[in-house]
## 1
Amino acid sequence: MIDLKTKQEIEIMKTGGKILADVLFEVLKNIKIGVSEIELDQLAEKLILEKGGEPGFKKVEGYKHAICISTNDVVVHGIPTNYKLKEGDVVGIDCGVYYKGFHTDMAQTVRIKDKGLRIKEDEIDEFLKIGEKAMWEGIKAAKAGQRVGDISKAIQGIVEGQGYSVVKSLVGHGVGRELHEDPEVPGFLDGSILETALLEEGMTIAIEVIYNMGKSDVIYSGGDGWTIKSKDGSLSGLFERSIAINNGESLILTK
């Protein structure tokens, strides 16, 4: 069942989303050579609490961290470890904030480069640009009267159009009182757009681009019950924003 939010509830989510965006981009600024994954997790939790929010992911049963971190071939749900980041690593940070009864969810992926070296852009940089572009195009398609399938089609067309693979076993989702709500928001279209959920004003959803440089197959890894990696070991990317559906342009809550 889809939970439509009131304007007042969306304002609360907007405030929580602002906390989340500020925290996430501060954490991204601290992704450097030699910094450990667990240090980034600790920083995220500290910042969330200082800003008046709660780590949303800690409200998921069994999960004990403020972020999930996806390094290189980790697709989603990577548990922060003592691994120290190296030059060239591709690092995705997925974070959630719980504020006054509502969740917001957001993710961004970056590549670590030695700022002292001039490195020409290459296929990895292009891979990340395409994922972020697909996310923004998916957000553009998210308007009242459109359907979830319009979002899915926009994302899939850009990602697969460049020869990459949308991970089809993992999807975006509604977000609000719960971290994961209806409807599911896939990054791919399976069947007719008309068979997908209608977008209505008051819906709040997390649009996610979850994709691999290689094939789309994924596996659980590490025996922790959380970490999911690309089956072929290829690099993975993750981009996500929480939005509220309007009649016109959607409101980005995590801005």
## 2
Amino acid sequence: MPKFSVIIPLYNKEKYISATIESVLHQSFQEFEVLVINDCSTDQSLKVIQQINDDRVKVIQHRKNSGLSASRNTGIKAARGKIITFLDADDLWKEDFLFHIDQLSKKFTNCDIFATDYWESYKHQMHSTKKNLKHIYKAEQYIQIEDFFNASLFNPIYCFSSVAFSKKAIDEVGLFDENISYGEDIDYNIRMNTKFNLAYSCKPCAVYRLGVDKQMTASGIVGKSLPNLSSYRNIKTNKNLDLYINMKYYYYASQFKKAKDHEMLKKYMKALNFSQLSKKQILLLKSPYWFYKFLKQTKAFLLKKGIKVTPY
């Protein structure tokens, strides 16, 4: 039985999937299986995988296109590992990712969520992401994150290609909600982090690629099914959960403004607690659309120059 099950949902990523799988096969820690869930790709993705000669790579074929959550659930049901981790089909791991996850699982026996820092990659430029941590930690440090929701107020403390969960935790929390087509990671993170502790490596060991072909977030928010985050506001075990949810409402409102979906923008503006937002965030939401568009274009231009700006 492998220690790790690596679940890779796949849909039309022929340009990236080979490098993604190779980044797993070249891990310094080798006790793993790779489950690629082909969600009815219509390009050459499956052909690319079939050229990889490694018995640890298993392809599970969906009969119909079912989405990201269903693909992850298929992988979870087939997984044999004690720890389950996910890797998007266009992301990458550094060679020591699984090594650090293994070390975290041994060092923090009270934890069931294990994660590392990550890089954001845009047009081959690597960017670190601002985290809401009290201290500046060295890359080699292992820590327990006392409050996931507080630590993720600026940017997520981990991305879904840099986190792993014990099989025990997944069995208790359950599968991904297949009714959610946008924000399923947010829903799952809330369900996990209100129940289990998070151990963390401060070294970036995963690469989250931005701006790639056919990326799900690039398709936009309009018409998608979002998680019902208001249902979690009754959870009183964490005082920062409400603030975390408010930040997600801000993100949704910003996306609906970008898409000119005035009805949904109005809905999320009404749900927002503006006292919990920064002045820059309020400016973005309340500014005329032409000015909002100008600011977003400026942000995109600066990102191409290697300068990342945020509204935090």
